[in-house]
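Input record, target 12 of the design panel.
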């Protein structure tokens, strides 16, 4: 009887121990807490914040340098020399078309003049149209303008910007020869190129 009781007590103790052991195993089998974020993610966030800070303060662009749109004294002297070398272009009586000799006169230094003027867009030249004494003042003013326009058209074709070429007609008001013969009249039927009077 004593052995039966002891056996029963022992059986109960073993059963209790087994159930306690199983409960411990179940607790041990629970999932561990989530790991902390990896260092790479933290570094990535840090890089993103640095990039934001960098882009929010852009570096100001350097101010563009102002270039002069008018030639200096030395360049003006060079332009004046070229203008003095360009011969007046002459016309036939009552005509405004450029003769071959007129084209040759305009052609002589116009390429160099073009190359200088393109760097100074505010500098302007004036093409003056002139006539001989024959005909009315009104008629000669119109004819002188046509001659100036013909010379300007040629210079634009060479490459001088039209915006840098003004035209004016003096008709028969400013002759360079006062004789009353064909030789003198031929000298007065001309165009003459000068620097614009407002720049002198």
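The sequence produced for target 12 reads:
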């Amino acid at each position: 009887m004593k052995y039966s009781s002891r056996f029963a007590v022992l059986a109960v103790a073993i059963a209790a121990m087994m159930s306690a052991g199983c409960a411990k195993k179940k607790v041990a089998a629970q999932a561990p807490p989530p790991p902390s974020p990896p260092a790479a993610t933290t570094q990535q966030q840090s890089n993103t914040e640095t990039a934001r800070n960098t882009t929010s303060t852009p570096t100001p662009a350097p101010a563009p340098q102002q270039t002069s749109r008018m030639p200096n004294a030395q360049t003006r002297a060079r332009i004046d020399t070229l203008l003095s070398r360009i011969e007046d272009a002459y016309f036939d009586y009552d005509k405004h078309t450029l003769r071959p000799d007129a084209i040759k006169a305009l052609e002589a230094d116009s390429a160099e003049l073009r190359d200088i003027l393109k760097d100074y867009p505010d500098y302007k030249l004036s093409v003056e149209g002139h006539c001989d004494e024959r005909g009315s003042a009104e008629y000669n003013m119109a004819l002188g303008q046509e001659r100036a326009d013909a010379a300007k058209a040629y210079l634009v074709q060479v490459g001088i910007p039209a915006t840098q070429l003004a035209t004016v007609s003096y008709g028969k008001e400013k002759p360079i020869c006062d004789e009353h013969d064909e030789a003198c009249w031929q000298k007065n039927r001309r165009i003459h190129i000068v620097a614009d009077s407002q720049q002198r």
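DSSP finds six helices and four strands in the chain.
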